[in-house]
Amino acid sequence: MAEALAPEAPHHKTATEKTSLITGSEAIAVACQLADVDVITGYPIRPYDTVMQYIAKLVANGEMDCEYIIAEGEHSQFEIVKHASACGARVFCGSSGVGWMYAMEALTVTPALRIPMIAMVGNRALDDPGAFGVEHNDALAVRDLGWQLVWVDSAQEALDTALIAYRVAEDRRVFLPCAISCDGAFLTHSQGIVKIPSKAQVDKFLPRYNRGDLLLHPDNPITVAPQANEDWLMEIRRQTAAGMERSPTVIREAYADFAKVFGRKYENPFFEEYMTDDADVVLVGMGTLSNPVRVAIREMRKDGKKVGFVRLRWFRPFPGEDLAKSLSRFKAVGVIDRDFSLGSPYSSGVVATETRAALYAAGAKPPVIGFICGLGGREVLLQDVRKMADKISEAAAGKPQAATQWIGLRE
Amino acid sequence: MGRLYAVEIVYRGIFQKKLAVNVSRAIVLAAHREGRPGISFGRYGDSPERNGIPAKYFAIVADDELTLEEGMAKYEPKEVDVSICLDDTLFKGVESWAWYGLQPINKLVRENGTLVVTTLKGPGELTPVAHRKAQPYKLAIVKATPSFSGLWVYKDDHTDVRVLGAIAKAVPQMFSLASLQQTIRDEWHDELKVKSATKAYNSFSTTTVTPDQGNPEEPYKFDMPKWTEMREGIAIPGIAVGDQVKDPVTGEKGGWRPGRNATFKKWATRTMRPVIDFEKCIKCTLCWLQCPDSCFDVMPDGMYDANLEACCGCGVCEAVCPEKDCVTMVNEAQFKDNHSQWEDWRKDGPAYLAELASWIKDKPARSHGFNIRGQYEKEVPAEIAREA
User: Fold this and answer.
1) ipTM of this model?
2) C-alpha–C-alpha distance, residues B243 and B253, integer Å
3) Model-level pTM?
4) Are residues A92 and A200 part of one domain?
5) Is there a contact between B98 and A243 if contact means CB atoms under 8 Å apart?
6) Given CB 3.0 to 4.6 Å as the disulfide criterion, which of A147, A248, A303, B350 pairs with A142?
7) In A, which residues are within 8 Å of B226 by CB distance?
8) Which domain holds residue A383?
């Protein structure tokens, strides 16, 4: 990182935007630096560990001032920042794969306590077998618990989204944690040109974290998380649900302000459409598989195949109505899951199941085919995308298709 | 549709858990003998694993499966045919761990239903203690020292079968004496227990309690806020730090009374309370250190006063006190309020000591179960011989 940033003075002193060649992990570390995060905990697991390494370097170089704590495991890692956040600190942490799962108890209690923790999940296949490559099941494991979940597909988007995540999570209307998912290897370990905003711009966009009457401090004596019985649980769950229900509005506001301050505009915060205007059929997916999908679509367009792509950014809150409205325009939909949901309806992946649920209330319901693809970091090849596009085109033409299909599998 | 029968058993955590289970199970088994289905369960929100904390068990019996299912659709019955009170100090009301304020002991007893209590007291003494009820109900007494055992020991003094004998008489439609007798034989293989049950059945009698009898006080309850009215983040206001204590005689301020939860005050939670002979106290601090509820306040003169709004009556202070007869656990039933013993002693020492002696007089009649090895063999056979 030091090398990447070397040509100029430490950038927190720079007044204007500059560019650097950095990885997705590095971009998140820079966002932490710009957001002036107070407490950061780390515990190494690949590919998330790249973030903690970059942050360690920033701290060691005197470029970042924060409490940087190496915990004795992921459970402690997430507990430490949870408590620091309750005391009013802006916090950051993260993990990958089974490390994330080891923190599960801490992950579970964080939303109900209304802790705006920001975490980076370097998406990694869950053991066993031990593998480094990307699968989305780690982050998706908390999808029902009150975590906001967002997937990005470039280093620039990682940086931008981290700043937006702080703005959204720390909004009193929300006060819920947010995990930013970066695909292992494809994003965590590959460098791209990233525009790095100035500290002044970030300060303009991101207000200080104000915990108000929930601040754990001697001047505000409160007890947090006392034992409660059946007389209280439903009300507490409803409060957490209300925070999540308010999140979409806050996300929209944050993206609109982001465009004003930084001049980079994300049209629809929740999902990005590619060549959908005249498309007959579309593929839906999350994360870096967008790259081969977009390229394959451009190739297929040359052959006259009208295929589009919808890249889902925010999985929680899930943009159910908007996505259903968008997808009901097409003749068939193929959902690419870089995850699995064993025993789920139609043996599909998580995103396919959620998409089908979202479409249920839509007036026009296109057939939905679930594709399981790219598990464990296997590349999603152009020919895989073509195959998936062919399957949905056949479905659009009325030819029955299997509800779930594994693509790129040796068979 | 057949008839539904519900029995509630109110008991003290740990000390009477096995006793409550025995009564509840035998009700269902005796009714089952006559072809009636039933269910026995403890109230889940209670915490019967805590010494002396009031808790409940329920036995639900019906003439047929469909009626039983309809009865169980409301998990905790709103109305019962019989309430069993296994400890007469619960007549003050029930403060369970599943905190619903103070619940009158007779709250669930239906009109003309029966409240059975194990006690040495008479109806004249007990009736004024229970809260008034709009409908009349019947009070039945099973004459016995309330039966208390420990975590690992069951005091088999026949309280279980004697209560069952009373139930067989109170609600003969639920199960007959013959069915109960056979159930006891099958469960316990003990003819002496059959005899105890039969005796309780035969000597069963009731007194009617009318709506104008009983404690006229409105039992305290909590208002439950809506979800929009609660602070978010599972955060509640902290407890105030505390303050010094004022000596009622000299006006001098000193010592320390820590702040405590203003809502969660103990009253009927206890079956016993500690009383203190301040003349014997050596200020060793052990009660203050060891009390699991931090209920001891430090007085200006360095004495330790049990703050009864915080005391659960567990008896740890008595157990750790090194001075003979300095801290003594006594029957809670004789007290009308929670006020400070130390203040009474400061204002009039001799009068306080005389009162203290009268409280302690009752001491052998009640204990928290078994405290010494060999106590069971020494006490229980004699009790059984007396009852049977």
Assistant:
1) 0.87
2) 10
3) 0.90
4) yes
5) no
6) A147
7) 235
8) 271-407
